[in-house]
Design a protein that fits this description.
2 domains; 3-stranded mixed β-sheet; 8 helices; elongated; GMP Synthetase, Chain A, domain 3; mainly alpha; 63% helix; Alpha-lytic protease prodomain-like; single chain; 3 strands
């Protein structure tokens, strides 16, 4: 009996990632509780605002945990691919939330540049250093997870921007304590907002490519088509589609015409082996027919060997 070692390893890795996310979530929630407590005691609106920011990060990590749980469900009914693309939805939500937070932080920072409040430098420095420590541990945890998953990467980017934010806050607090320059805090906040914007745009762009079913990064459909048409007995390749179902799960489908006297089953096996070896494509659907058949499809990509023409067709 054959065993699906790939599927088993995927489940094991997903379980490990789930544990890492759960530990990270616990660290963040504990730190939020500390920030709220200190903020209430010190009557610090800045600390309470940051606690709200951290709470959104905890929500993002919680969404990532939910996405991993849903993605692990088997395919059934109408969900023929299961719920694996929920991870991409989570990544996009994380990217959008980073952009929204960056906008709020930038707005508040600009307001404080014109009207800088008096902040308690020592209190902010202590909390910022504690925040650096917590986020270093959280970032180390998620760095060991499967960051090829956009879902994990989204949570990781939230933690990393928090880490940069607390480092910047600690620097600003030190500058305020040494020089009294109160505008150091909003200036650093603007830099952090810029980093958050870059991470958010990257996540939204990457997840958007998957939702639009663009070819995965690093896979050129034209090169794949040329490799297919160079296989023995292949006359023509059209309706070639290459897309990404979720992070690390690419798929291909194509209509292939082979010579009228060719063994279409042998040709298909040869193409599948080539796609696996050269392009690491394992989820392939090849419709192989002999030349001379009646075709009425709209052709998305028509590739033929040199000398036989290579023109795009439409029905």
């Amino acid at each position: 009996m054959a065993h699906d070692h790939t599927g088993h390893s995927h489940v094991v890795r997903a379980d490990a990632d789930r544990r890492r996310l759960a530990i990270t979530l616990g660290l963040i929630v504990a730190f939020v509780a500390v920030e709220v407590g200190v903020g209430v005691v010190a009557h610090s609106l800045a600390l309470l605002s940051d606690a709200g920011h951290m709470l959104t990060d905890a929500a993002a990590i919680g969404f990532s945990l939910l996405a991993i749980g849903l993605a692990a469900r088997p395919a059934k009914g109408a969900m023929t691919f299961g719920f694996r693309r929920v991870e991409i939805l989570s990544a996009q939500a994380n990217g959008v939330s980073l952009l929204i937070l960056a906008a709020f932080i930038a707005y508040e920072a600009i307001r404080r540049l014109f009207d800088p409040p008096v902040v308690r430098g020592w209190l902010i420095l202590i909390v910022a250093l504690l925040g650096v420590l917590v986020n270093l541990v959280a970032a180390w945890m998620l760095a060991q997870a499967n960051r090829e998953s956009l879902n994990i990467e989204g949570s990781f980017q939230h933690i990393v921007t928090d880490l940069y934010g607390f480092i910047g806050t600690a620097v600003a607090a030190a500058v305020i304590l040494l020089t009294g320059f109160q505008r150091a805090d909003p200036i650093v906040s603007l830099l952090i907002a810029g980093l958050m914007t870059r991470s958010g745009v990257s996540l939204v762009k990457a997840s958007g490519r998957i939702f639009m079913e663009a070819a995965p990064e690093g896979l050129d459909p034209q090169a794949i088509g040329q490799a297919l048409v160079a296989q023995p007995d292949v006359v023509e390749v059209h309706d070639l589609h290459v897309w990404e179902i979720t992070s690390g799960f690419s798929a291909l489908s194509a209509h292939v015409l082979v010579g009228s006297d060719s063994n279409c089953h042998a040709a298909r096996r040869g193409m599948e082996a080539m796609l696996h070896d050269r392009f690491a494509l394992d989820h392939t659907t090849l419709q192989v027919d002999h030349t001379g058949g009646d075709r009425s499809q709209i052709v998305q990509l028509d590739i033929r060997p040199a000398g036989r023409g290579a023109n795009a067709e439409t029905s």
